[in-house]
Write a structure and sequence with these properties.
There is one protein chain. The chain contains 10 helices and 9 strands. With 228 residues, the protein is of the alpha/beta class. The chain has 2 domains: 148 residues, Rossmann fold, CATH 3.40.50.300; 52 residues, Guanylate Kinase phosphate binding domain. The longest helix is centred in the C-terminal third of the chain and has 16 residues. It is globular, with a radius of gyration of 21 Å. The relative contact order is 0.19.
Length: 228
């Protein structure tokens, strides 16, 4: 699809707000980044009070805030949602989402269970109409352990906490419209892209296409319904 065709397609519908959840090391962040890099999506960058991991960049991977700044932004109503996860604050800024949706750009969010529940509960009809939610399940707990050990970024205590939370998070997978059992990063993204492509064609998200629906008469012309 050419860039001009992409622009026309975006402006003829509202953007998707695609929430992607899953336990730690399930591959949800990789899926979101691939959607940003290969599918013309905006990756919403969350705020967090946790310390950056090695190689993470402020404003690229997360907006890293101190606790006082996070609480102040909460009081100001800057967040679409926020929650406490693994002992740290996480949240999504409204400024990272709403303007993109209005312009017809799809936004993907790597979001925890609590945050997804809060957004689903919104009374804002615009946000509700844009919502798509996907849960990524690991193929096994052993695979989660292997992926966490492969990171080499957690202490033993942090590993135990993440594994405990993973078990609790997986109880919620049926709250989501879609579920993907993780395989390879490429296979996960192929399935995710299939979901996005279907959701983009839902009639409830389409605006009136210029020169088409707006010109369809509400009543059929008499000559079409008069028997010869």
């Amino acid at each position: 699809m050419t860039e001009s065709a992409k622009t026309i397609a975006r402006t003829e519908r509202i953007g998707l707000l695609c929430m992607v959840s899953g336990p730690t090391a399930s591959g949800k962040t990789t899926v979101c980044r691939k959607a940003r890099d290969h599918d013309d999506c905006v990756y919403s960058i969350s705020c967090t009070t946790r310390a950056p991991r090695e190689g993470e960049v402020d404003g690229v991977d997360y907006h890293f805030l101190d606790k006082d700044d996070f609480i102040q932004r909460t009081a100001q109503g800057d967040f679409l949602e926020w929650a406490t996860v693994h002992g740290n604050y996480y949240g999504t800024l409204k400024s990272e989402v709403v303007a993109h949706l209005e312009a017809g750009r799809d936004v993907v969010m790597d979001i925890d269970i609590q945050g997804a529940q809060l957004i689903r509960a919104t009374e804002d009809p615009f946000i509700r109409n844009a919502l798509v939610d996907v849960f990524i399940l690991p193929p096994s707990m052993d695979e989660i352990k292997n992926r966490l050990f492969g990171r080499g970024t957690e202490t033993d205590d942090q590993m135990r906490l993440r594994l405990y939370n993973a078990l609790d998070e997986m109880k919620h997978w049926r709250e989501y419209r879609y579920a993907i059992v993780s395989d390879t990063p490429e296979a996960d993204f192929d399935r995710f892209r299939t979901i996005l492509n279907g959701e983009r064609m839902r009639a409830c998200r389409m605006r009136t296409p210029a020169g088409l629906v707006g010109n369809i008469p509400t009543d059929l012309p008499q000559e079409l319904i008069t028997a010869e």
